[in-house]
Amino acid sequence: MKIRQSNSETLTVKVYIHENKKEETFLVSIPDIFFSIQFDYHLFGEALTEHLYVHLFNILDEKEAAELALRITQWTSEV
Question: What InterPro entries is this protein classified in (predicted)?
Answer without folding.
Answer: Uncharacterised_YueH
